[in-house]
């Protein structure tokens, strides 16, 4: 619980709001580096940009050291979920599992040296790792093992799911140019220097946030969640025994006509009136819900909103012409637009 509380401090909405000026430059850099006038496979550069932002948010000046390890750990996890001809039992050390373990160990070793250097220098830092290194009045100092156990997973999570979401968002900017124009008009008010962006600027991107939320409603990257029933209960006429695992599908839940009018229609405006409030429990599940909700939701929303605003402000986005789809859909690990190709044309 102590580790959970320590890392939660650095990921709370108010902590993210205070560091918007550190998040925005990475989204602007991604937009600056997007080659214009050609069809580009966009997920790899999106993932690199969001990994840089996420790892810097967690580790500030130590990010360049840890970023390569985080990227390799992500790649190892991706290899592990690819379908293979054989379904090996979990105890067999297949090459993919050994690769994942090696990357996990490499990341942990690199992180251990950062932790010991910070502890010996007495400068814990103001980032998420710094929050974990500072003793809390309630629990005292956090053990090194607790830090090393929790941070690799959090690190990959800061960019893994947001990258999948960003693919869907950029695809919607291409398919709904009027919505993209509205985002661009809103984004025109962002400061010329991305580092000067504050939470006040982010709060003004109301329609952009609504668009991000609507894309996440229609295409939640985490489209299937597992929950364990703590006690015997009734659900939709079925008896669920205590300890049973229940699958929850945000993809279908968020297209429920009882909660959303015209549920299959892309309509960001639905989030701008009170009836579409994401605060209503069970209506919006893209970041989970309750005590199992995603701790990084505020960070993910900030990254995705700023990335969307910067991209629409600078470019018209379009799909390659022709009958071939611009991506192929996979559901492994998350709902993903694999191989997504898009073209950016500078707005006049």
Task: Report what the structure shows.
With 348 residues, this protein is mostly helical. It has two domains: 2-220 and 263-346, Cytochrome P450 (Cytochrome p450); 223-253, no CATH class. It has 13 helices and nine strands. Helix 9 (177-187) crosses helix 13 (297-314).
Count the domains.
2
| Shape, per Cα inertia axes | globular
Distance linking N and C termini: 52 Å
Classified in CATH, the superfamily of the largest domain is: Cytochrome P450
Number of strands: 9
| Number of helical stretches of at least 4 residues | 13
Oligomer description? single chain
The biggest beta sheet is recorded as: 3 strands, antiparallel
Structural category = mainly alpha
Return Rg in Å: 21 Å
The main sheet orders its strands as 1-9-6
Q: Helix and strand string, N-terminal first?
A: HHHEHHHHHHHHEEEEHHEEEE
Question: Helix content range of the residues, please?
Answer: 40-55%
User: What is the CATH T-level topology of the largest domain?
Assistant: Cytochrome p450
CATH class of the largest domain: Mainly Alpha
Mean pLDDT rating: 88
Beta strand % = 5-15%
> Which residues sit in consecutive blocks of at least 5 with pLDDT less than 50?
none
**Per CATH, which architecture of the largest domain?**
Orthogonal Bundle
